[in-house]
């Protein structure tokens, strides 16, 4: 047999295979090319509601807004604590008669904490007082957070973040001005996410996260490397509040720039939400799809646009 020639039946099979591979079984559509930048950039959140929008309740002197571990929205004003459904309807006024409440938090056991002047109060979900303690050294408490065991309080006037046990005994100084693992100036609100606590250092124009457990270590820094502040994305002017969703996205109320800025868990800037007024507080739903922004006498609800499903 000549080594340079193929038998005729093998030639026919080879030709048929070429036809099949060339034309396939029916018409083929090309796969759409991927964007050279990957996924399209996230769209900004859209204003969808404003509360209160009826006469069922009034809000004055809002100090803090959170989405509780139970999914309800808790709003503390200077004198009252409100519990709202996610549509803004009033569930109940949980507590009245605060003298000068500053901040609210809910731990994983659904206990609710409010710092009111020099007094820290813990309530159950019905608003019944479980216990309280007083620290007469507090001057201007501005934030509170608890992991169910330790209570953290920021004192804006004294440039301190302190931790307490349930009896009111100071465990340690978490942050102070110009010293320690975390340098703060006029610290505002606090937020706990798993093993870390976020601290808003308002006069430093940045937000930082450190480990809850000691010895503490810095885990994340948001904002510039100086205290000047800026209007650029990723920078702040007088930030006042921070919230974190279940996926680790971080939301900062940037009061001086009248916006909410969103970052991923690694500190990368994602998107900003422009506001028409100066925010006092920000809270987010657990899935990160909804933002609740507190102003002096109202709450604005923002929703993240849903992306269309990607082609398979």
What does this entry show, briefly?
With 312 residues, the protein is mostly beta strands. The chain has one helix at 8-23; strands at 46-51, 62-67, 73-77, 81-84, 90-95, 101-106, 112-116, 119-123, 129-134, 141-146, 151-155, 160-164, 170-176, 187-193, 196-201, 206-211, 218-223, 239-244, 250-254, 259-263, 269-274, 281-284, 290-294, 299-303. It has a single domain (47-303), classed as TolB, C-terminal domain (Neuraminidase), CATH 2.120.10.30.
What would you say this structure looks like, in words?
This is SMP-30/Gluconolactonase/LRE-like region domain-containing protein. InterPro entries: 6-blade_b-propeller_TolB-like (IPR011042), NHL_repeat (IPR001258), TRIM-NHL_E3_ligases (IPR050952). The chain has one helix spanning 8-23, and strands at residues 46-51, 62-67, 73-77, 81-84, 90-95, 101-106, 112-116, 119-123, 129-134, 141-146, 151-155, 160-164, 170-176, 187-193, 196-201, 206-211, 218-223, 239-244, 250-254, 259-263, 269-274, 281-284, 290-294, 299-303. A hairpin with a 5-residue loop joins strand 4 and strand 5 (90-95). The protein has 312 residues and is mainly beta. The protein has 1 helix and 24 strands. The protein has a single domain (47-303), classed as TolB, C-terminal domain (Neuraminidase).
CATH architecture annotation: 6 Propeller
How much β-strand is present in the residues?
Answer: 35-45%
Name of the CATH superfamily: TolB, C-terminal domain
Named CATH topology: Neuraminidase
How far apart the termini lie comes to 51 Å
Order of helices and strands: HEEEEEEEEEEEEEEEEEEEEEEEE
- Order of strands across the main sheet: 1-24-23-22
Count of the separate structural domains: 1
Shape: globular
Q: Mean pLDDT score, rounded?
A: 88
Unreliable residue stretches: 13-38
Instruction: Give the helix level as a range of percent.
Output: under 10%
| The first-level CATH class name | Mainly Beta
Count of distinct strands: 24
Rg (C-alpha, Å): 27 Å
Number of helices: 1
How would a textbook summarize the main sheet? 4 strands, antiparallel
Overall SS class:
mainly beta
